[in-house]
Amino acid sequence: MQKLLVAFSIFFLGGCVHLDLAQRSKADARRLDCQPTRQLVGDLVATPKGLIVGEMHGTNESRLVVLELICAALDDGKSVSLALEMPDAAVGRDTKQALRDDFWKPARADGRSSKAMLSMIRDLEPLRRSGSVKVYGFAAPTVGAAEWEATSAQNILAGARPGDVLIVLTGNVHARRSGAAATIGSIMADATTVAVLSREAGIIWACMPTCGEHPISATAALSVGPHRAPKTFGYDYAVVVQRYSPSPPALAKRGRPKRRNRGQ
User: Fold this and answer.
1) Which of 75, 90, 172, 204 lies in the 20 to 30 Å Cα band around 58?
2) Residue 35: what are its φ and ψ, rounded to 5°?
3) What is the pLDDT along the chain (264 residues), one digit of tens a residue?
């Protein structure tokens, strides 16, 4: 009888924990205050092997896409592990401490340490505290190209919480599956890949090789919104935005955060 009661208690409490997590996730979706892209939910956030989002660094648009995907997962009662292309120390739970990492120094800016990325990390702070979202960095130290891709893929999988919807944000080259060279997208072959593409010419902040704003041509002759990507794209899906807009480095030259732009 005692064993039966213990077993019942474990089952009951486990159910409560699961229910509490689902309720907390839904509450955090409302707290994040973004509209989930319902067209993407079934095929993307439900994928069991992870979702790899390929972006053009130094833009505002990928942040909005990732937040919508997170919203969709939370709204479905799931928790999320978000892996970003930066060192793990640069995205620690204490944002003030994380900003001291060399990654954020203006002299090392390459588009990944943008105002949009810092804004997204700050947007997710309450959800990290509640436990519905884990944010971590996966970028490996500077090594050979093939080794970087393999080590980064290992770090992504090692950092994800079991049972979470895994969302990875990385450069579009790393996410793409094409050619003979190994990429994160090809190594994590069971994951779903998504490219954030632009319908019109726009501007990005990148090092090409000089660092600053650069014009960029349209990258997809598709309507704005989500699409199953043609095989030639090298991705499973494409989310097409009207145009890229530039997001400069998050820190000013003197090393302090610039005033946050809520519109990013």
Assistant:
1) 75
2) -95, 115
3) 444 333 333 333 344 444 466 676 667 666 666 665 555 545 666 666 889 999 999 999 999 999 988 988 888 888 999 999 999 999 998 999 999 999 999 988 999 999 999 999 999 999 999 999 999 999 977 777 779 999 999 999 999 999 999 999 999 999 999 777 899 999 999 999 999 999 999 999 998 889 999 999 999 999 998 888 888 899 999 999 999 999 999 996 654 554 444 433
C-beta separation of 199 from 243 below 8 A: yes
Residue 228 corresponds to which amino acid?
Answer: R
Paired with 52 in beta bridges are 168, 193
Cα dist from 46 to 15, 27, 55, 72, 238, whole Å: 21, 19, 21, 10, 17
Domain containing 168: what range? 2-241
Domain assignment present for 250: no
Determine, yes or no, domain membership for 263: no
Helix residue ranges, H only, the chain: 2-32, 38-40, 61-75, 95-98, 115-123, 125-130, 145-159, 172-175, 184-187
The tally of CA atoms less than 13 A away on the side-chain side of residue 118 is: 28
CA 219 to chain centroid, in Å, comes to: 20
